[in-house]
Amino acid sequence: MQEPQSPIATDQSSKSGLDAVPIGLCVLSDDLRFLRINETMAQFNGYTPADHLGRSLSELVPDIEPQVRHHMKEVVETGKAIGPFEVAGETAAEPGALRIWMEYWSPVTNERGEIIGASIAAIDVTERKRIEREKDEALKLTERRLRQQTAIAELGQLALQDVAFQSVLDKAVEAASVALEVPLTKILAFEDAADKLKLVAGIGWEDGLVGAASVGIDKDSQAGYTLMANSLVIVDDLQSEKRFSGPALLRQHGVVSGMSIPIPAAGDRPYGVLGIHTTEHHVFDQGDKDFLRSLSAIISNAVCKEAAKTQSKLLIREMAHRAGNMLQLVSSIAAQTFRHASSPSEAREAFNQRLASLARANHAIAQQGWVNTRFQKLVEETLSPFKDKMRITGRDIRLAPELCFDLGLVLNELGTNSVKYGSLGSADGFVELSWSIDGPSDAQNLTVVWFDPVSSIAASPAASSGGFGTKLIRQLVSSKWHGAIDTQTQGHYKMTLTLPITMKAEDL
């Protein structure tokens, strides 16, 4: 390209030579006006060569002008060529599309040797950059998948070893943080009162929260919503989330995006929820979702393994203990039943019913390995003969197996009595059973309420103070567990049992 002879040159007589070059070429004055330009550069900008001459860079390609102003100053002041460097922006040739050029700038002088501008050679590298970017992204994605697969393999091996269960949980949240590149990860586990989830393992939370903090399980929390949905839940932006509000724990840590998934357990209730969170907007792809599902499955297997190990130990111990107690209990029930029965057939029927109740209560507790037992499961097993007539309400709490067993006997006596003299004996009758736990953690009470709309049950022989059923209830509730019994008989039959209980934090 020949040097122009004046600051504003309009001579394009040599454009055929310039146009033969597949590179964008032009000459800019020191105030960034076009002096010469070839067809290729003109096409880059979206105007004809003639449209460029004498017009400023800011007028024709305003995206580019701020990026190159200092380059012109450097060329003019130093008199040296510069480049290559990248310039990017939109032009009239393709509005809305970002293009990238690699440019080289050299000084241009007039006949007196004064630098009056710069000649520019530009190569469109947009496609090359796109390919390079795709390669980089593919490499990063490959590395990300490798990290995730390695984390799954390592955690899976750890879960199969004879290590502490907490070690598996701690390793899981650490693996999730590294493999998904997120600052906050957590495992929430059900507390046995079933009304909240405890933070049992986590990465990135404030000191003192892991092992102590808890969140609710209602639908307003992400964990609660995840449990109800029973599937993977993705949050794009917690601030604009409409399905739930998110607990204070997340908002206090500036959570924006995240994923959560239930952790299944061997029983009817999940172990808890696995969650990962970011403090910036983040899009999770299918591989990230699959990774979290795999992580949840490994934790679930560890949960089941730990539960089986605990149940096995307790079951062996309890079997020896229960065998002697069961024989004594059967002997006592037999003696009391046959002593108070008016006929052998009545005695046999009553004894068989009580043995059946023992079997059902024992089955419900044995199913869970003689560990803290779901009271709702016990209720359903014990009262299964009357299930169509029962209206049951209460949290799915866990109680000591001994207490559950005794309450099963009490409920059987109440149910049998109602069949003979109360609502359960009528075609359309029903009985309401409810329970709750209240009081401070060091002095809690379990309250069980049996409500029968038929009041005539109070006058029955079985409900009399000398009846075996009444004696059994009094012996178990008052004598053995130091509880209180309140009976109301005006217009209905209502028995309220209040038992002091001592429960560990994980049972509430």
From TrEMBL:
Per UniProt, residues of the PAS domain are 10-79
Identify which top EC class this enzyme belongs to: transferase
Where does the sequence pass through the membrane?
none
Name a Pfam family for this protein: GAF_2
Keyword set includes Lipid metabolism: no
Name the catalysed reactions: ATP + protein L-histidine = ADP + protein N-phospho-L-histidine
Q: What is its EC number?
A: 2.7.13.3
Q: Which UniProt keywords apply?
A: ATP-binding, Kinase, Nucleotide-binding, Phosphoprotein, Plasmid, Transferase
Question: Which chain positions lie within coiled-coil regions?
Answer: none
What is this protein's record name?
A: Blue-light-activated histidine kinase
Q: Which organism is it from?
A: Rhizobium rosettiformans
